[in-house]
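cron nightly-structures :: item 1 of 1
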Amino acid sequence: MADHVSPSVAPPRLPSWLRRPVRTDADYGRVSRLLSELSLSTVCRSAQCPNRHECWNHGTATFLILGNRCTRNCRFCAVEHGPAGAPEPDEPTRVATAARAMKLRHVVVTSVTRDDLPDGGAGHFAATIAVLRGALADVTIEVLTPDFQGRPTDVDTVLAAAPDVFNHNLETVRRLQAHVRPQASYATSLAVLRRAAARAGGPAVKSGLMLGLGETDEEIAAALADLRAAGVVWLTLGQYLAPTRAHWPVARFVPPEEFADWRRRALVLGFTAVASGPLVRSSYQAERLLDKNAAAATLAAAE
């Protein structure tokens, strides 16, 4: 694999491996109506996920709590930036109502970053987990959290609610952090992951990187080593796609064979589950990673 250092103007056309037909079926409409009726946001829509049609057609979605506006303005992200309202006390119940109606066995909950809140929204995460546990028998719960500005007490608040999977994305390599996510930091994200991994009897700890922002192979390898050293066991690797021309540009489109190679290298490093492919996203087919018998097929398909 070659090194790719500096981002440039995004290529004008998507390569064939990033193109997929867009179709909707009855489940897509059902999910869309349900989310609208319950006034719920999803990362599928707010972050312009390329897998939205596939997931909604299969009756799944990733819930976005604490509003749909982020107090940060990362250069890679499509989520709107700006002031957000107070957390809605009934939102956890609405999430549980949707999850029950969708017959979800594995629920993924993420949020916008809320630096305006004293606890960064950690208490709202914990409340959502608690309501889901009470409403759905045998449900497994995955949270994808912000960094809570590195506050250990807020990380502990979420962990105390006992999610099955704790996910926080490193997003990119050390050198690009200040450019791509200037209000976050590489060290802070690793510290959050390290604290989650150190909790006795705690959740599986998961993180992810976007490729194609201008990183080198050596920098990717270093980031993977740092994630393993922090105790991360599950990993996602996917292609970065710029939401608009105003966002950080795509440096290149990483071919599927390189994603396959990174998966092999990550497994050698000791990650126990690795989803690596151009269209892989943090919560893509997340439920199947809990099933060790299905994980190998899921991860191979991701390539």
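cron nightly-structures :: done
The chain has twelve helices and ten strands.
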